[in-house]
Design brief:
The protein is of the alpha/beta class. The chain is built from eight helices and seven strands, in the order ααβαβααβαβαβαββ.
Length: about 190
Amino acid sequence: MSSAPQALDALARARRVWDNHNPENVTGGLIQLCRELVRPDWVMVEVGCFAGVSTAIFAHFAATVYAVDPWELGPERGYNEIPASAIAAAAGRFDLVAARYPNVLKRQGFSPEAAAAFAGASLDAVYLDGAHDPAGFEADVRAWVPKLKTGAFLMGHDLNLVGDPRRFLNSTAELRTYPESSWAFKVGQNDQ
């Protein structure tokens, strides 16, 4: 858990992404999710960190936050949802955030490839906010669920865009939802 200076109330007003026209790209619901679920001894992964606003929030609650994002590698592989200049600026801002939080460990790369570097059943939570297309989101879910301990949480953002992630696992676990479209559910033995 971080004792970093940036207060949660300041982070609660911060915008998460480059294009702030979407009212769901704020952090109040994410802070609520963290207060309810994230524990100070957790080791977790955040996929899709961009400028690090949500990463800083996780750093206030978890012991270790692995931050996975392709940053500048995205445009090199044809990703064009966000302009390359905005991605480069976000990568620089992320580095400033990571420097303030010693419990944040940056892992530049694409989500499924990054997941391969983690041992099975080693994580307390994974928060998905990377791929938003159906195939990419399913690949993220399938890559990260085996890395979660039984009883750990799969969490994420943009439920309205990606749909219910439990469908890939045939899970009937309770799906918790939060303001600004964050979500979470507990992964059981049958989900892995």
